[in-house]
Design goal:
Heat Shock Protein 90, 364 residues, 66% helix, alpha+beta
Length: 364
Protein backbone atom coordinates (compact mmCIF):
# COMPACT_ATOMS: atom_id res chain seq x y z
CA UNK A 1 0.00 0.00 0.00
CA UNK A 2 2.80 2.43 0.83
CA UNK A 3 4.33 1.98 -2.65
CA UNK A 4 0.97 2.80 -4.22
CA UNK A 5 0.96 6.01 -2.19
CA UNK A 6 4.57 6.66 -3.18
CA UNK A 7 3.73 6.26 -6.87
CA UNK A 8 0.76 8.61 -6.56
CA UNK A 9 2.90 11.20 -4.75
CA UNK A 10 5.67 11.07 -7.38
CA UNK A 11 3.11 11.46 -10.19
CA UNK A 12 1.33 14.29 -8.41
CA UNK A 13 4.61 16.17 -7.87
CA UNK A 14 6.01 15.46 -11.33
CA UNK A 15 3.13 16.94 -13.32
CA UNK A 16 3.33 20.52 -11.95
CA UNK A 17 7.15 20.40 -12.17
CA UNK A 18 6.88 19.52 -15.89
CA UNK A 19 4.38 22.31 -16.45
CA UNK A 20 6.79 24.82 -15.01
CA UNK A 21 9.05 25.35 -12.00
CA UNK A 22 10.59 28.72 -11.12
CA UNK A 23 9.43 30.01 -14.49
CA UNK A 24 11.13 27.18 -16.43
CA UNK A 25 8.48 25.13 -18.30
CA UNK A 26 9.57 21.83 -19.80
CA UNK A 27 8.10 22.61 -23.18
CA UNK A 28 6.19 19.33 -23.25
CA UNK A 29 2.53 19.37 -24.33
CA UNK A 30 0.10 18.40 -21.58
CA UNK A 31 -0.54 14.80 -22.84
CA UNK A 32 3.22 14.14 -22.98
CA UNK A 33 3.71 15.67 -19.53
CA UNK A 34 0.93 13.46 -18.13
CA UNK A 35 2.55 10.41 -19.73
CA UNK A 36 5.96 11.22 -18.21
CA UNK A 37 4.42 11.84 -14.79
CA UNK A 38 2.51 8.55 -15.01
CA UNK A 39 5.69 6.70 -16.01
CA UNK A 40 7.48 8.22 -13.02
CA UNK A 41 4.67 7.11 -10.69
CA UNK A 42 4.71 3.58 -12.15
CA UNK A 43 8.48 3.36 -11.66
CA UNK A 44 8.08 4.51 -8.05
CA UNK A 45 5.42 1.85 -7.48
CA UNK A 46 7.71 -0.79 -9.02
CA UNK A 47 10.42 0.16 -6.52
CA UNK A 48 8.85 -2.39 -4.15
CA UNK A 49 10.64 -4.98 -6.33
CA UNK A 50 13.46 -2.98 -7.89
CA UNK A 51 14.26 0.71 -7.69
CA UNK A 52 16.73 0.72 -10.60
CA UNK A 53 14.05 1.57 -13.22
CA UNK A 54 13.08 4.53 -11.04
CA UNK A 55 16.73 5.66 -10.88
CA UNK A 56 17.16 5.33 -14.66
CA UNK A 57 13.97 7.24 -15.42
CA UNK A 58 14.81 9.83 -12.77
CA UNK A 59 18.28 10.41 -14.23
CA UNK A 60 16.97 10.86 -17.78
CA UNK A 61 14.10 13.12 -16.70
CA UNK A 62 16.42 15.23 -14.54
CA UNK A 63 18.86 15.77 -17.39
CA UNK A 64 16.25 16.81 -19.97
CA UNK A 65 13.43 18.33 -17.95
CA UNK A 66 15.02 18.97 -14.53
CA UNK A 67 12.32 16.63 -13.18
CA UNK A 68 13.50 15.95 -9.64
CA UNK A 69 10.79 13.83 -7.81
CA UNK A 70 11.78 10.44 -9.37
CA UNK A 71 15.50 11.01 -8.69
CA UNK A 72 14.75 12.12 -5.14
CA UNK A 73 12.84 8.88 -4.42
CA UNK A 74 15.54 6.77 -6.12
CA UNK A 75 18.26 8.41 -4.00
CA UNK A 76 16.41 7.44 -0.82
CA UNK A 77 16.20 3.79 -1.94
CA UNK A 78 19.88 3.85 -2.92
CA UNK A 79 20.92 5.01 0.55
CA UNK A 80 18.66 2.42 2.17
CA UNK A 81 19.62 -0.60 0.04
CA UNK A 82 23.23 -0.14 -1.14
CA UNK A 83 25.17 -1.84 1.65
CA UNK A 84 28.65 -1.76 0.10
CA UNK A 85 30.60 1.48 0.08
CA UNK A 86 31.72 0.81 -3.49
CA UNK A 87 28.11 0.62 -4.67
CA UNK A 88 27.20 3.82 -2.84
CA UNK A 89 30.20 5.61 -4.35
CA UNK A 90 29.23 4.39 -7.82
CA UNK A 91 25.68 5.67 -7.37
CA UNK A 92 26.80 9.08 -6.12
CA UNK A 93 29.33 9.30 -8.95
CA UNK A 94 26.56 8.54 -11.44
CA UNK A 95 24.42 11.25 -9.85
CA UNK A 96 27.29 13.72 -10.20
CA UNK A 97 27.48 12.85 -13.88
CA UNK A 98 23.71 13.36 -14.15
CA UNK A 99 24.06 16.83 -12.56
CA UNK A 100 26.86 17.68 -15.01
CA UNK A 101 24.79 16.53 -17.97
CA UNK A 102 21.83 18.54 -16.67
CA UNK A 103 24.03 21.64 -16.46
CA UNK A 104 25.17 21.15 -20.08
CA UNK A 105 21.58 20.72 -21.28
CA UNK A 106 20.53 23.80 -19.29
CA UNK A 107 23.33 25.85 -20.82
CA UNK A 108 22.30 24.65 -24.28
CA UNK A 109 18.64 25.51 -23.74
CA UNK A 110 19.49 28.80 -22.01
CA UNK A 111 16.79 30.77 -20.26
CA UNK A 112 15.37 29.77 -16.85
CA UNK A 113 16.62 26.17 -17.13
CA UNK A 114 20.18 27.43 -17.51
CA UNK A 115 19.72 29.53 -14.38
CA UNK A 116 18.50 26.50 -12.40
CA UNK A 117 20.81 23.80 -13.72
CA UNK A 118 23.99 25.55 -14.86
CA UNK A 119 24.44 28.20 -12.15
CA UNK A 120 26.87 26.66 -9.59
CA UNK A 121 24.89 27.78 -6.54
CA UNK A 122 21.55 26.55 -7.82
CA UNK A 123 23.04 23.32 -9.20
CA UNK A 124 24.69 22.58 -5.84
CA UNK A 125 21.47 23.33 -3.97
CA UNK A 126 19.47 20.98 -6.22
CA UNK A 127 22.13 18.25 -5.92
CA UNK A 128 22.07 18.43 -2.13
CA UNK A 129 18.27 18.64 -1.90
CA UNK A 130 17.43 16.03 -4.56
CA UNK A 131 20.30 13.57 -4.09
CA UNK A 132 22.28 14.21 -0.91
CA UNK A 133 19.55 14.60 1.68
CA UNK A 134 17.38 11.66 0.47
CA UNK A 135 20.50 9.49 0.26
CA UNK A 136 21.44 10.43 3.84
CA UNK A 137 17.89 9.69 4.98
CA UNK A 138 18.12 6.26 3.37
CA UNK A 139 21.43 5.61 5.16
CA UNK A 140 19.87 6.58 8.48
CA UNK A 141 16.87 4.32 7.87
CA UNK A 142 19.13 1.38 7.05
CA UNK A 143 21.28 2.01 10.13
CA UNK A 144 18.19 2.13 12.33
CA UNK A 145 16.91 -1.15 10.88
CA UNK A 146 20.30 -2.80 11.38
CA UNK A 147 20.41 -1.66 15.01
CA UNK A 148 16.91 -3.05 15.53
CA UNK A 149 17.80 -6.38 13.90
CA UNK A 150 20.98 -6.60 15.95
CA UNK A 151 19.01 -5.95 19.14
CA UNK A 152 16.48 -8.64 18.17
CA UNK A 153 19.27 -11.14 17.44
CA UNK A 154 20.92 -10.37 20.77
CA UNK A 155 17.60 -10.81 22.55
CA UNK A 156 17.09 -14.18 20.85
CA UNK A 157 20.62 -15.24 21.77
CA UNK A 158 20.10 -14.22 25.40
CA UNK A 159 16.82 -16.13 25.51
CA UNK A 160 18.47 -19.23 24.00
CA UNK A 161 21.32 -18.95 26.48
CA UNK A 162 18.88 -18.67 29.36
CA UNK A 163 16.94 -21.70 28.09
CA UNK A 164 20.15 -23.70 27.74
CA UNK A 165 21.19 -22.83 31.30
CA UNK A 166 17.76 -23.75 32.64
CA UNK A 167 17.77 -27.04 30.74
CA UNK A 168 21.19 -27.84 32.14
CA UNK A 169 20.01 -27.02 35.67
CA UNK A 170 16.95 -29.24 35.29
CA UNK A 171 19.12 -32.04 33.90
CA UNK A 172 21.45 -31.81 36.90
CA UNK A 173 18.54 -31.89 39.34
CA UNK A 174 16.96 -34.89 37.61
CA UNK A 175 20.28 -36.73 37.51
CA UNK A 176 21.21 -36.00 41.11
CA UNK A 177 17.77 -36.60 42.65
CA UNK A 178 15.40 -38.59 40.46
CA UNK A 179 17.92 -40.90 38.80
CA UNK A 180 19.59 -41.63 42.14
CA UNK A 181 16.33 -42.60 43.82
CA UNK A 182 15.11 -44.71 40.91
CA UNK A 183 18.48 -46.50 40.96
CA UNK A 184 17.96 -47.26 44.64
CA UNK A 185 14.51 -48.68 43.86
CA UNK A 186 16.02 -50.96 41.20
CA UNK A 187 18.79 -52.11 43.56
CA UNK A 188 16.39 -52.88 46.42
CA UNK A 189 14.03 -54.69 44.05
CA UNK A 190 16.94 -56.83 42.84
CA UNK A 191 17.98 -57.61 46.39
CA UNK A 192 14.42 -58.57 47.31
CA UNK A 193 14.14 -60.81 44.25
CA UNK A 194 17.29 -62.68 45.24
CA UNK A 195 16.62 -62.99 48.98
CA UNK A 196 12.92 -63.75 49.20
CA UNK A 197 11.68 -67.30 49.30
CA UNK A 198 8.16 -66.29 48.19
CA UNK A 199 7.82 -66.91 44.46
CA UNK A 200 5.06 -64.32 44.05
CA UNK A 201 7.12 -61.70 45.88
CA UNK A 202 10.13 -62.53 43.70
CA UNK A 203 8.06 -62.05 40.53
CA UNK A 204 6.76 -58.72 41.84
CA UNK A 205 10.30 -57.63 42.72
CA UNK A 206 11.51 -58.61 39.25
CA UNK A 207 8.68 -56.61 37.69
CA UNK A 208 9.51 -53.58 39.83
CA UNK A 209 13.15 -53.87 38.86
CA UNK A 210 12.28 -54.12 35.16
CA UNK A 211 10.01 -51.10 35.32
CA UNK A 212 12.69 -49.18 37.21
CA UNK A 213 15.31 -50.02 34.58
CA UNK A 214 12.93 -48.84 31.84
CA UNK A 215 12.37 -45.65 33.81
CA UNK A 216 16.13 -45.13 34.04
CA UNK A 217 16.47 -45.65 30.28
CA UNK A 218 13.69 -43.13 29.63
CA UNK A 219 15.26 -40.74 32.10
CA UNK A 220 18.61 -41.08 30.34
CA UNK A 221 16.95 -40.12 27.04
CA UNK A 222 15.23 -37.15 28.68
CA UNK A 223 18.53 -35.98 30.16
CA UNK A 224 20.08 -36.29 26.72
CA UNK A 225 17.32 -34.11 25.28
CA UNK A 226 17.85 -31.50 27.98
CA UNK A 227 21.62 -31.41 27.54
CA UNK A 228 21.78 -31.61 23.75
CA UNK A 229 21.63 -28.45 21.59
CA UNK A 230 19.73 -30.58 19.06
CA UNK A 231 17.09 -32.42 21.14
CA UNK A 232 15.81 -34.53 18.25
CA UNK A 233 19.20 -36.22 17.90
CA UNK A 234 19.50 -37.00 21.62
CA UNK A 235 16.78 -39.64 21.90
CA UNK A 236 18.45 -43.02 21.52
CA UNK A 237 15.43 -45.31 21.96
CA UNK A 238 12.24 -45.21 19.88
CA UNK A 239 9.31 -43.62 21.64
CA UNK A 240 6.41 -45.93 22.54
CA UNK A 241 3.33 -46.00 20.36
CA UNK A 242 0.11 -48.00 20.06
CA UNK A 243 2.10 -51.13 19.28
CA UNK A 244 3.51 -51.03 22.82
CA UNK A 245 0.12 -50.67 24.49
CA UNK A 246 -0.26 -54.36 25.41
CA UNK A 247 3.09 -54.35 27.23
CA UNK A 248 1.95 -51.32 29.21
CA UNK A 249 -1.29 -53.06 30.15
CA UNK A 250 0.59 -56.23 31.15
CA UNK A 251 2.68 -54.21 33.59
CA UNK A 252 -0.46 -52.90 35.26
CA UNK A 253 -1.96 -56.38 35.37
CA UNK A 254 1.21 -57.70 37.03
CA UNK A 255 0.72 -55.09 39.76
CA UNK A 256 -2.74 -56.44 40.55
CA UNK A 257 -5.07 -54.26 38.45
CA UNK A 258 -7.65 -55.97 36.28
CA UNK A 259 -7.26 -54.31 32.88
CA UNK A 260 -9.40 -55.23 29.87
CA UNK A 261 -8.65 -53.91 26.40
CA UNK A 262 -11.24 -53.67 23.64
CA UNK A 263 -10.61 -52.44 20.11
CA UNK A 264 -13.46 -51.20 17.94
CA UNK A 265 -13.35 -50.58 14.21
CA UNK A 266 -10.82 -51.78 11.68
CA UNK A 267 -7.31 -51.40 13.07
CA UNK A 268 -5.01 -49.39 10.82
CA UNK A 269 -1.71 -47.57 10.96
CA UNK A 270 -1.88 -44.00 12.25
CA UNK A 271 0.65 -41.20 12.25
CA UNK A 272 3.47 -41.71 14.78
CA UNK A 273 2.53 -38.55 16.70
CA UNK A 274 -1.07 -39.76 17.00
CA UNK A 275 0.03 -43.22 18.16
CA UNK A 276 2.42 -41.79 20.75
CA UNK A 277 -0.22 -39.44 22.10
CA UNK A 278 -2.78 -42.26 22.40
CA UNK A 279 -0.19 -44.32 24.28
CA UNK A 280 0.48 -41.43 26.68
CA UNK A 281 -3.24 -41.02 27.33
CA UNK A 282 -3.52 -44.64 28.44
CA UNK A 283 -0.26 -44.42 30.40
CA UNK A 284 -1.33 -41.34 32.35
CA UNK A 285 -4.78 -42.78 33.04
CA UNK A 286 -3.30 -46.03 34.36
CA UNK A 287 -0.82 -44.08 36.48
CA UNK A 288 -3.73 -42.26 38.11
CA UNK A 289 -5.50 -45.57 38.68
CA UNK A 290 -2.40 -46.87 40.49
CA UNK A 291 -2.25 -43.71 42.59
CA UNK A 292 -5.88 -43.18 43.46
CA UNK A 293 -7.87 -46.34 42.72
CA UNK A 294 -5.58 -49.32 43.25
CA UNK A 295 -7.14 -52.72 42.42
CA UNK A 296 -10.04 -51.05 40.55
CA UNK A 297 -11.18 -52.76 37.37
CA UNK A 298 -10.14 -50.72 34.33
CA UNK A 299 -11.46 -50.84 30.78
CA UNK A 300 -9.36 -49.56 27.90
CA UNK A 301 -11.11 -48.93 24.57
CA UNK A 302 -9.42 -48.00 21.32
CA UNK A 303 -11.81 -46.94 18.57
CA UNK A 304 -10.63 -46.56 14.99
CA UNK A 305 -12.93 -44.00 13.41
CA UNK A 306 -12.61 -42.97 9.74
CA UNK A 307 -11.47 -39.50 10.70
CA UNK A 308 -10.12 -39.91 14.23
CA UNK A 309 -8.65 -42.24 16.82
CA UNK A 310 -10.55 -42.40 20.10
CA UNK A 311 -9.11 -43.73 23.35
CA UNK A 312 -11.10 -44.27 26.54
CA UNK A 313 -9.84 -45.44 29.92
CA UNK A 314 -12.62 -46.02 32.44
CA UNK A 315 -12.02 -47.42 35.92
CA UNK A 316 -14.59 -48.46 38.46
CA UNK A 317 -14.56 -47.56 42.14
CA UNK A 318 -11.74 -49.13 44.15
CA UNK A 319 -12.68 -52.07 46.41
CA UNK A 320 -11.22 -50.19 49.37
CA UNK A 321 -10.20 -46.63 50.05
CA UNK A 322 -6.69 -46.25 48.58
CA UNK A 323 -3.86 -44.75 50.53
CA UNK A 324 -2.96 -42.58 47.54
CA UNK A 325 0.41 -41.59 46.18
CA UNK A 326 1.85 -38.11 45.90
CA UNK A 327 1.52 -36.35 42.57
CA UNK A 328 2.26 -32.93 41.15
CA UNK A 329 -1.21 -32.55 39.66
CA UNK A 330 0.16 -31.62 36.23
CA UNK A 331 -0.25 -34.98 34.49
CA UNK A 332 -3.69 -34.39 33.01
CA UNK A 333 -2.84 -30.75 32.25
CA UNK A 334 0.18 -31.74 30.20
CA UNK A 335 -1.81 -34.54 28.59
CA UNK A 336 -4.53 -32.11 27.52
CA UNK A 337 -1.91 -29.82 25.97
CA UNK A 338 -0.37 -32.76 24.09
CA UNK A 339 -3.76 -33.82 22.68
CA UNK A 340 -4.81 -30.28 21.76
CA UNK A 341 -1.54 -29.71 19.90
CA UNK A 342 -2.73 -32.38 17.45
CA UNK A 343 -6.14 -30.74 17.12
CA UNK A 344 -7.84 -33.25 19.44
CA UNK A 345 -9.90 -33.04 22.61
CA UNK A 346 -9.47 -34.60 26.04
CA UNK A 347 -12.36 -35.24 28.42
CA UNK A 348 -11.86 -36.21 32.07
CA UNK A 349 -14.67 -36.61 34.57
CA UNK A 350 -15.71 -38.52 37.65
CA UNK A 351 -18.54 -40.97 37.08
CA UNK A 352 -21.47 -41.97 39.23
CA UNK A 353 -20.48 -44.66 41.67
CA UNK A 354 -16.89 -43.50 42.18
CA UNK A 355 -15.28 -44.33 38.85
CA UNK A 356 -13.30 -42.04 36.57
CA UNK A 357 -13.14 -41.56 32.81
CA UNK A 358 -10.32 -40.29 30.61
CA UNK A 359 -11.34 -40.02 26.95
CA UNK A 360 -9.32 -38.54 24.07
CA UNK A 361 -10.28 -37.96 20.46
CA UNK A 362 -7.35 -37.34 18.13
CA UNK A 363 -7.74 -36.53 14.42
CA UNK A 364 -6.07 -39.24 12.36
Amino acid sequence: MRFVLLGAAVSALSLPVLQGQAGAPSGLPLPAAVAVAAAAGAAAWWARRSWWPLAALGAAAYVWFLLWPPLLAASYFAGRDLAKGRDSAAYLGGCAAVCGASALVGAWRAGPQEMLAATPGNALFLAVAVIGLPFALGLWTRARHEVRRRAEREQVMRAEQARAQERARIAREMHDVVAHRVSLIVLHAGALEVRTADEAAARAAALIGGIGREALADLRDVLGVLRSPEPAAAVSAPLPTLGDLDRLLDQSRALGIEVVRRDEGEARAVEPAVGRTAYRVVQEALTNVHKHAADARTDVRVRYRPEALEVEVRNGPPPAAPAGLPGAGWGLVGLRERVELLGGTLRTCAEDGGGFLVAARIPA
